């Protein structure tokens, strides 16, 4: 959580981390047989996606702050832990989701302001896709 909260200074990276954490937790929970937890995770991702859309429209006047980063990281952590404990989500998916804040720290282009959230989201969704792939492969007998 602290690596996500440390992103509060950069709204593009903070929103992208929340988007990837929410969608990654949601998709992983659905693949782990918990539809309700998956819907909550996807709702978190949609909320952070709305923040990113607002950032692309209004530009640098929007700031993420600790309220967005702390809320997104705590909710994603609780939803993912609930999917592991209550559903059949494998623990390796949580390890892949923990890489989302690391991936959104990759260098962003200095070109137009609206492209930065898109590129940061792609970086974060790579790690979230890894979590989804692990959740897909675990029940099919793939050993870790």
Strand content: under 5%
Q: How many distinct folded domains?
A: 1
Q: Distance between the terminal alpha carbons, to the nearest Å?
A: 25 Å
What is the gyration radius calculated from CA atoms?
A: 15 Å
The secondary-structure element order is HHHHHHH
How helical, in percent, are the residues? over 70%
Largest beta-sheet details: none
Classify the secondary structure makeup into a structural class.
mainly alpha
Runs with pLDDT <50, length 5+? none
Q: Name the average pLDDT.
A: 89
Write down the overall geometry. elongated
Counting DSSP E segments of at least 2 residues, the number of strands comes to: 0
Number of helices: 7
Question: If you had to describe this structure to a student in words, what would you say it looks like?
Answer:
Helices cover 73% and strands 0% of the residues. The protein is an all-alpha fold. The chain has one domain (2-140). The longest helix is centred in the first third of the chain and has 24 residues, at 35-58. The two termini are 25 Å apart.
What's the arrangement of secondary structure elements?
Layout: H1 2-5, H2 11-31, H3 35-58, H4 65-86, H5 91-97, H6 100-103, H7 115-137
Helix pairs in contact: 2-3, 2-4, 2-7, 3-4, 5-7
Which terms would index this structure?
mainly alpha
Short description:
This protein is an all-alpha fold. It has helices at residues 2-5, 11-31, 35-58, 65-86, 91-97, 100-103, 115-137. The protein has one domain (2-140).
């Amino acid at each position: 959580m602290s690596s996500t909260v440390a992103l509060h200074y950069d709204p593009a990276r903070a929103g992208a981390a929340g988007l990837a954490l929410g969608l990654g937790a949601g998709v992983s929970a659905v693949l782990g047989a918990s539809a309700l937890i998956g819907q909550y995770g996807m709702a978190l991702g949609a909320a952070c996606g709305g923040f990113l859309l607002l950032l692309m429209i209004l530009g640098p006047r929007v700031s993420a702050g600790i309220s967005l980063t702390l809320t997104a990281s705590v909710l994603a952590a609780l939803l993912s832990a609930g999917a592991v404990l209550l559903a059949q989500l494998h623990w390796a998916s949580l390890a892949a989701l923990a890489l989302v804040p690391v991936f959104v720290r990759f260098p962003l282009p200095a070109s137009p302001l609206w492209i930065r959230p898109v590129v940061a989201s792609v970086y974060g969704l790579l790690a979230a896709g890894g979590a989804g792939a692990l959740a897909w492969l675990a029940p099919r007998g793939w050993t870790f």
